[in-house]
Amino acid sequence: MKILTVTGYKGGVGKSVTAIHLATYFSEKGKTVLVDGDPNRTTLSWAARGKLPFTVADERQAMKMVASADYVVIDTPARPHSDDLKELAKGCELLVLPTAPDVLSLQPMLETARDLGEANYRALLTIVPPYPSKEGEQMREDLRRGGVPVFQTMIRRTSGFPKAALAGVSIRDIDDARARAAWNDYLSLGAEIMEILK
Amino acid sequence: MKILTVTGYKGGVGKSVTAIHLATYFSEKGKTVLVDGDPNRTTLSWAARGKLPFTVADERQAMKMVASADYVVIDTPARPHSDDLKELAKGCELLVLPTAPDVLSLQPMLETARDLGEANYRALLTIVPPYPSKEGEQMREDLRRGGVPVFQTMIRRTSGFPKAALAGVSIRDIDDARARAAWNDYLSLGAEIMEILK
Question: Domain named CobQ/CobB/MinD/ParA nucleotide binding: which ranges (chains A, B) (predicted)?
Answer without folding.
Answer: 4-169
